Amino acid sequence: MVAIYCHPPGRFMDSTLSPFLILFIGVGIVIGMIIGLRINAFVALITAALTVSLLSPGEVADKVSRVASAFGSTAGGIAIVIAMAAIIGDCLMKSGAADRIVQAFLKVLGEKRSPVALAGSGFVLSIPVFFDTVFYLLVPLARSLYRSTRKNYLLYILAISAGGAVTHTLVPPTPGPLLMAQQLGVDLGIMIGVGSLIGLPAAIAGLLFSAWINRRMPIEMRAHPGEDLDAPGSEEPERGRPGLFVSLLPIVLPVALIGLSTALETRANAERAAQIKEADLKDLDGLYSASAKAEEGALLVVKSALPPRAEASPETVAAALNEALASRTDFKTSANLSRANLAVVEHENRKVLEAALPETVLSRHVWKTAKRKASDLGQLYGNANLALLLSAVIAVLLYVRQCRPDKKTFSGLIENSLMSAGLIILITAAGGAFGAMLLASGIGPEIREKVPAASGGMVLLILGFLVSALLKFAQGSTTVAVITASAMIAAMTDVATLGFHPVYLATAIGGGGLVGAWMNDSGFWIVAKMSGLTEMEALKSWTPMLAVLGITTFLFSLLLSNLMPLV
Question: Mind listing the pLDDT tens digit for each residue in 60-74?
Fold first, then answer.
């Protein structure tokens, strides 16, 4: 009871715990509940979020409601996208479009390059379709190829995983990369582009490892009950399958719309329309006079930024003010500009400055230029929710045209798709809430104080990879590993001092989520049981192949963050 009265009103249960201890408790709850108690990841993540919130600073009345708010905010950003992606995936499977894409790869590359065709099919299909579904689709083709060639069965199986696992982990709209992009403030188009760019060499490295391990431990295909291994591989007739263009359209359309939106926004931001030009400074004396009287607010920022009046010229004053406009906190600390593009930061700060100065001193800038208007239009059509909705409509129409389902079958397909998406949405949103509460604990500033400034973001890249790999090894789920690790890294990240685009943090974390796959991973059992591998064979082949994918992803993230920082 004494503790109750020792705190000011409304501040009971304010945290005096170290943020590092709070972090350790939160992660311990996630791992302990999933591994030790075998509890669903959603329950584990939301319990960890509530615990971290209760232990973190803040008003006691808000400690539960802010978890719910963070959960809702995350769900609002990802729920529609994940639901539409689930519908797209199921419709591609049922309509024969997915099979059409696979057969196109095989036809172009031929039987000798069939491992490349399987890897390419997995790479493309795992963008809108979950990895386990893609594996279910492609395993029969791998078995059919073995009947034709009587060799390379392990290579065929691992090739599917090499292509499918990497895009499932790095390229939205699958849940892991989708939430990583949201938590780290990465534009979805950039996440798709860079994720695919880094995923390609990773998939190639995985394919090369698969060929090497196939030579070291050749494995013959084992028959399923009732299966005749001597029967020749059958080829389904192409009659009845949709065309290649329409099969690819539900995958290509959202990528194209989101990519176009990103390109238009990048072009508009490159204008830096809010920067102060010499002609915008109409009265230097008036500017110095107004700032000299300032005691707070934007003019105080100007006062500290301006050169001495005797040395002032329109050129030097404009340069000084533009440097100040790039601040993410000095002008308006409540604007939440920590992860905004620099052009947007300058725009928001200039609006504050223009409100403090008359137009006779500083001209008003024009933000809605022709390029910005084009960008705004691109933001409409390239919005991930609308882009995936349009893609889902096309996929549904394709399914209806190909399969002619009755109303019951049709509604059943959509309901099953949404049911499978529902659990993923809950887990992903709970991960977002957990990340927000870690941010509230103050772990970010604590770690930034302990990381040498000269190391920049390299330490965070390495830390993100290692944390994600550790979480993956400990609890098995790649999705849980990457959303938990990205939540932790997001709380530590200051974009202004990072030195490269935060998309590389996301890909490094995604790479970590591929390392350490073993018997606690559902994907391990899907691959082992569907392909007929023993547990030891899967541990010797599939587990190290995914580690190759993850390490290659991390190394290319490290390399490109230096060669192509995108800032």
Answer: 888 999 999 999 988
H helices of 128-187, in order, are: 131-149, 153-170, 175-184
What are 168's two structure tokens?
A: 């499932």
Contacts 24+ apart (CB under 8 A), 396-402: 396/87, 396/91, 398/91, 398/92, 398/95, 398/97, 398/242, 398/246, 398/247, 398/249, 398/250, 399/91, 399/94, 399/95, 401/95, 401/242, 402/94, 402/95, 402/96, 402/97, 402/240, 402/241, 402/242
pLDDT single digits (tens) 233-271:
444 444 467 999 999 999 889 888 988 998 999 899 989
Which residues are 281's β-sheet partners?
Answer: 362
Residue matched to tokens 């024009």? 366
Q: How far apart are CA 525 and CA 538, in angstroms?
A: 9
The three-state secondary structure class of 115 is helix
**Helix, strand, or coil here: 362?**
strand
Which residue stretches of the chain have pLDDT < 50?
A: 1-13, 233-239, 334, 453-454
Return the structure tokens found at 90: 């199921």
pLDDT digits (tens, 9 = 90+) for 408-448: 999 999 999 899 888 888 988 888 888 788 878 887 677 66
Measure the CA–CA gap between 436 and 276, rounded to whole angstroms: 35
Cis omega (within 30 of 0) on the bond before 140? no
**Closest by Cα among 192, 149, 142 to 172:** 192
Question: Are 14 and 58 contacting, i.e. CB atoms less than 8 angstroms apart?
Answer: yes
pTM: 0.78
Closest CA to 363 of 291, 328, 314: 314
Distance CA 137, CA 247 (A): 15
192 contact partners, CB below 8 Å, separation of at least 6:
171, 172, 255, 258, 259
- Quick one: what percent of the chain has pLDDT higher than 90? 41
Residue 38 φ/ψ region, left for φ over 0, alpha for ψ in the -120 to 50 degree band, beta for the rest: left
Q: Cβ(176)–Cβ(479) under 8 Å? A: yes
Cα–Cα distance measured from residue 261 to residue 84, given in angstroms and rounded to the nearest whole number: 19
Alpha carbon distances (Å) from 322 to 98, 268, 302, 335, 338: 52, 18, 10, 18, 17
What six digits make up the tokens of 69? 């708010």
| C-alpha pair distances (Å), 41 with each of 231, 393, 430 | 43, 31, 9
Q: Which two tokens stand for residue 281?
A: 């400074």
Question: Which residues have CB under 8 Å from 351's CB, separation 6+?
Answer: none
